[in-house]
Each structure stands twice: as structure tokens, then as C-alpha cells.
Specification:
This protein is mainly beta. 5% of the residues lie in helices and 44% in strands. The longest helix has 12 residues.
């Protein structure tokens, strides 16, 4: 929160063609303590900072990566004498200008230098803009300095050094046998404004993989903060309401429709001649379901209607049509003392493949027009998740979580423990390990029924827990769907060795061995048997990126080198080690880990990339999808986690 408060008064951001243009106000918190600040109405924020001989202005800024920086403007006014002003970035002079003699000592007459000609290539890190003069003027008022940074990913938080970035580093990857064949990762990410959406999607393909490892380690930047709360700003799709209409005036002459971005309501005349008002309202709408990674078309819903100004009795009959035939419900009788009604609609009533309809037959003896304040459809409320501790010892805790309406219902997962106990309908389970430096336990592994696995290293000393961030789908998941998944039907967990025997719905299977150390958590995946579709990837990396400093990942490194921004349109990249990491500190789950995916063993046939996809037609489909990636990469798609 303190970061936002500082930035509101410090900096404005303007997008330009060749990068980003930033305005640094001179009266930054630190600078106000060391210089006079005057109220001058013509200044951009009504205030300007005064520098005098021997009292230079220094403005700090940071760069995300080595960039070309240019001072595009400096807005100033001056006192009673002309003078020469020097502007430097660090120790390099980038511009010089003369202040004209002030007319009638008007400090409020601000002028702009315009763009300085010098463009400087500056390294990543912390830098300082210096503004000073050594002449006879009694002072110069500085309104702001604008700089143009040739970096399309730059943000205000990074520029003001509130979020720092680390230089590119060489990853210490464990050596591999030279016989390990290459795999390829495909860019399937898209833009989002919601930090709670997994918009980063990178499937990794190699039909001949025999063993690979997933490792979670703390980010390479160093932070003593632990930001770990969710952020639903920009997440309009998370609203409980599927659609809402307001302020509808009903009369017998109504026809046509009213529309919103999520539904349309059509009007038709009723047949009841005994009522003052007889009209039919027909809401028509689409709902997203499993194909879009959503639950809206499967979970039950509640229809609500609220009137105002009703003077007589009103009878409403409601019917609906979704997947099957038209369903009738009980009539609701409203009056001036009872203005609201609601109807519950069962789970699995709606369809995602066609239009859904509601039919509201309204017959009323109220004076007209009859006013509807709100007409809305919302998801039914869900019960809280049920958490059950299945096993606890000095060395491990295992918990099962049961979600009342899991997004892949009615598919379910069974979890069997080596102590002879088994549990059905598990939505996901989590494993805790002891924290060596205190008496507590920490989550290190979570496995969902849809194949998503999340890993955490044990928290650093002094921190009670750190958040999960990125995840990996372990198993073959369709890479073309909005929300990929690999349905697990059965897991057998050995409580001593922490080996998991995983069975998938498509007939595939694998063994997973969980290992933890002081610095990292690793899952070794081996004894892999692929399911029915050889085209699908063996693992899929999933994460979130909104902007620099608001992400769970921002780069991927291949084989310890070749760093690429996670939102670059890189198509596909070959390698046998993929490190998904953050170069810049994030205000979202900033201690969530970097993820390493290392292919440790492949069959000899993996050296022949043409044999990776045995069906040439399916391979061509994949190639065409990759080639079209540039066109479809940024299509907005949303999902929730059920």
C-alpha cells in the first residue's frame, strides 16, 4: 500500500511508440526534505521544487534491463537572472540549457526545454538524474523531468525502484547425460488484466520422455517482504452475478428487447385479459462451461427479481430451458408488502453449447408502469471447502480437500494411503513437511484432480509461510483448450518414501517422488506411460502475468541460457531444461517460487524430432497452430478455479 501512495504523487505514465515516457515530479518525498517547495499554480501538480547554487536536485530511478534513456523534457521557471543548467544521468552529461532572465520575477511562468539530443545506453539497476547550476541566479523552480525509456515492459513501480530487477544470471543446472533428447515448449499465453487468472500457458512436448524433474526454488531477487494476498482487481469475470438488468418499466405495449453484454431480455404480450398487466419476459443468454475452464453452465443458479412502487397483487410464473425440455417452477405471488422473489435452478440444468432461456409470465393488477428494480441471475452459493487431515507424523502431514462443486464434476479422484486408508471424491490434496528452524510444518506440494501440481520450498527463516504461484500440469493435457487438464482418477501415496502412483482417466500413468531440502522442493516424474493421444504434451507450465512487477513469472530460460520474456511471441523453443522465473520483484505473491523443469532421460528415438509425433496429420495440425500463434496469442480468455 505504501508503494501506491508514493507513486500517486510522484509519477505519471504515458505510453509512446518506442517505449514508455515517464514523468518524475521534482517534489518527491525525499527531495521535499532537502529543498524548498513552493505553491505555484502553473506547476503540473500546483507545486515546484526550488534548487539553488550548491543545492543540486537528484532524482533516483531504476531500470528493468539495459535500455536507451533520453530526457524528453524538463519544465522549469527561474528567478531574477539567467543561468546555465547542466543535466546529468549518473556521471554523464546528457543536456545543458540556459534559463532566460525572468520578467518581473514571475516564478509562475514555466517553460519547457523540449527533448535533449543525447540518448544514453544505460545498464540495468539504480541511476540518478542530477540537475544543477553554479551561476548567480537566486534559484530555479523545477516542476518535473520527463524521461523516455526504450523498454515496453517498464512500469512505474520499477522505474521508481519500488520493485527491483536482477541482471541476467547463469542458472546452476545439474549436468545431464548427452543422450537426453530435446523437447520443445510452445507459447500459448495470452494477455489478461486479472492477477488471479493463469494466462501463461506453455506446454512441453516429447513423446519419448522417460523421466523429468520439477523443482521449486525461491526467486533470485532478494526481498524481506512477503506479499501473499490475492488481488482480484481487473477480474470482472469473478463476479457472482451471471447477468443483471436494472430499472425496467413494464407496460402492455412493450415489445422488442433490452440488451447487455451478457444477456438479452425480449418482451411479448401475455394472454390474461383479467389483469391490468399481462406480459412475458424472455431472458436469453449463453454460459461458459468446461470447454472454457468455467463452471457457470454446470453449477446451479438463482434467479432474483425485485419490484418497486407496486400497488396491487402480481403473479409470476417462471419456466426455463437449458439442456433439456422446458422446466416449470412454482408461481410467486407478490404484493406491495412483498416486492421480491427468487427461484433456485438445479446443478447441470444449463448448457454451454446453445442458448439458455428463461420465461417470466407476469400478470399484475398494479398501477402501470410496473417497475422492476433488478432482474438478475447468479451462481448459487457454494459450501466452504472441507479440509480433512488424513495423516500426521513427525515427518509429514497429508490433508485432503473436498470442494462441493469441483469444476470437472462429476469426474472424481481417489486417494489411497499406504496405511490402508483410502478416500473418494478428493478434489485435491496437500503435503506438509517440517520446517527445520522451528516447530512448525509448511506446505510443499499440492496435487489437484485436474493434474495441476504446485510446489514450494520450505519458507526461509523468520517467515511462517510463503504462497504458491506457478503450477505444472503433470500428465497429458489438451494444449488447445482454454483451461488444460489431465484428469486423475487414482493416486496411491506411500507415506514413508513419498512416492505417488498416479493413474489418469485417459489410460496413462506415472510415478512421482517428492523430495525436499533446505533450499528447494523437487518432484521426480518417472515410469511414464502415455495415454491415448500421443500429440499431447507431457507437462504444461501454468502461471500469471499482468505486467512487470505484477506477475508470478516474467521470463523463461532454455538450457540455462537464452532468456526470453514470458510474453514474447517465441512460437516454440527447443531444449531439455526450462527455467520459469521472475527477473523483477513482484507485488503479487513475491516469494512464490521459480520453477525448473528438467528432462533427465528420454528414449533414443527422441533424437529424431520427426518421430516425436507419430501421426503426420496430427503433427501438421500442431505446426499450423504454432504458426497461427501470433494471431491468436492475445485473444482475451478467462477462467476460474471452481
Amino acid at each position: 500500500m505504501r508503494v501506491c501512495q508514493i507513486l500517486i504523487i510522484v509519477l505519471y505514465l504515458f505510453v509512446v511508440t518506442n517505449g514508455a515516457l515517464f514523468r518524475l515530479e521534482s517534489d518527491f518525498t525525499r527531495n521535499k526534505d532537502n529543498h524548498e517547495v513552493w505553491d505555484l499554480p502553473s506547476a503540473s501538480d500546483g507545486k515546484a521544487l526550488i534548487i539553488r547554487k550548491g543545492e543540486p536536485l537528484s532524482l533516483n530511478f531504476c531500470l528493468r534491463t539495459a535500455s536507451v534513456v533520453q530526457v524528453s523534457d524538463l519544465r522549469f521557471s527561474n528567478g531574477n537572472k539567467t543561468d546555465i543548467v547542466l543535466v546529468k544521468i549518473d556521471d554523464e552529461a546528457v543536456g545543458i540549457f540556459a534559463t532566460p532572465a525572468a520578467i518581473n520575477h514571475d516564478w509562475n511562468a514555466f517553460m519547457s526545454t523540449g527533448r535533449f539530443p543525447r540518448r544514453s545506453f544505460i545498464d540495468i539497476g539504480w541511476h540518478i538524474i542530477h540537475v544543477h547550476f553554479n551561476g548567480t541566479a537566486d534559484g530555479i523552480a523545477i516542476d518535473y523531468v520527463e524521461i523516455d525509456v526504450d523498454d515496453n515492459f517498464m512500469t512505474s513501480e520499477i522505474l521508481m525502484c519500488q520493485l527491483t530487477c536482477v541482471p541476467d544470471v547463469t542458472f546452476n543446472l545439474r549436468p545431464k547425460d548427452s543422450s537426453v533428447g530435446l523437447s520443445y515448449a510452445v507459447q500459448e499465453s495470452y494477455k489478461t488484466t486479472c492477477p488471479e487468472v493463469d494466462n501463461v500457458n506453455v506446454p512441453i512436448f516429447n513423446h519419448f520422455v522417460k523421466r523429468y524433474e520439477i523443482t521449486a526454488a525461491l526467486p533470485q531477487y532478494r526481498s524481506f517482504s512477503n506479499w501473499r494476498t490475492e488481488n482480484t482487481s481487473g477480474c470482472t469475470h469473478l463476479s457472482q452475478f451471471l447477468w443483471t438488468f436494472r430499472d425496467i418499466e413494464l407496460t402492455n405495449e412493450m415489445s422488442g428487447s433490452i440488451k447487455s453484454d451478457k444477456a438479452n431480455v425480449y418482451f411479448a404480450k401475455g394472454i390474461d385479459k383479467t389483469s391490468k398487466l399481462s406480459i412475458i419476459l424472455i431472458p436469453q443468454f449463453e454460459l461458459e462451461g468446461k470447454s472454457k475452464g468455467m463452471i457457470d453452465s454446470d453449477i446451479g443458479s438463482i434467479l432474483r427479481i425485485k419490484f418497486s412502487g407496486m400497488t396491487g397483487q402480481t403473479i409470476i410464473q417462471m419456466r426455463y430451458k437449458g439442456k433439456g425440455e422446458i422446466v416449470s417452477t412454482e408461481n410467486k405471488i407478490l404484493s406491495p408488502s412483498l416486492l421480491e422473489a427468487s427461484w433456485s435452478i438445479d446443478d447441470f440444468s444449463w448448457t454451454e453449447t446453445d442458448l439458455n432461456f428463461l420465461f417470466l409470465y407476469v400478470n399484475s393488477n398494479s398501477s402501470l408502469p410496473l417497475s422492476i428494480d433488478t432482474l438478475s441471475l447468479e451462481r448459487r452459493p457454494m459450501l466452504p471447502e472441507q479440509v480433512v487431515t488424513l495423516y500426521k507424523s513427525d515427518n509429514i502431514i497429508v490433508e485432503a480437500i473436498f470442494v462441493e462443486f469441483w469444476w470437472l464434476a462429476p469426474d472424481t479422484m481417489r486417494l489411497a494411503l499406504s496405511n490402508g486408508h483410502s478416500y473418494n471424491n478428493v478434489s485435491y490434496f496437500r503435503i506438509y513437511r517440517p520446517i527445520p528452524w522451528n516447530s512448525g510444518y509448511a506446505q510443499v506440494f499440492v496435487m489437484y484432480q485436474d493434474g495441476n501440481a504446485r510446489l514450494l520450498p520450505v519458507p526461509p527463516e523468520g517467515v511462517d509461510w510463503i504462497p504458491f504461484g506457478s503450477s505444472v500440469i503433470i500428465g497429458q493435457a489438451n494444449p488447445t483448450v482454454v483451461r488444460p487438464y489431465a484428469i486423475i482418477v487414482d493416486i496411491q501415496l506411500d507415506l514413508q518414501s513419498l512416492i505417488m502412483d498416479v493413474k489418469y482417466k485417459d489410460g496413462g500413468s506415472a510415478k512421482l517422488k517428492l523430495e525436499t531440502s533446505l533450499t528447494e522442493t523437487r518432484v521426480i516424474v518417472y515410469d511414464i506411460i502415455f495415454g491415448e493421444n500421443n500429440l499431447y504434451p507431457f507437462a504444461t507450465f501454468r502461471s500469471m502475468y499482468v505486467s512487470e512487477g505484477n506477475s508470478d513469472v516474467d521470463h523463461v530460460s532454455v538450457n540455462g541460457v537464452q532468456p526470453r520474456h514470458i510474453m514474447d511471441n517465441f512460437g516454440s523453443i527447443m531444449g531439455n531444461s526450462f527455467v520459469f522465473y521472475r527477473k523483477c520483484m513482484s507485488k503479487h505473491l513475491n516469494l512464490s517460487p521459480d520453477i525448473y523443469i528438467d528432462i533427465r532421460e528420454t528414449e533414443a528415438a527422441a533424437h529424431d524430432l520427426r518421430r516425436q509425433i507419430p501421426d503426420p496429420d496430427l503433427f501438421q495440425i500442431l505446426v499450423e497452430r504454432i504458426q497461427n500463434n501470433r494471431q491468436r496469442l492475445w485473444t482475451p480468455r478467462f477462467r476460474n478455479w471452481g
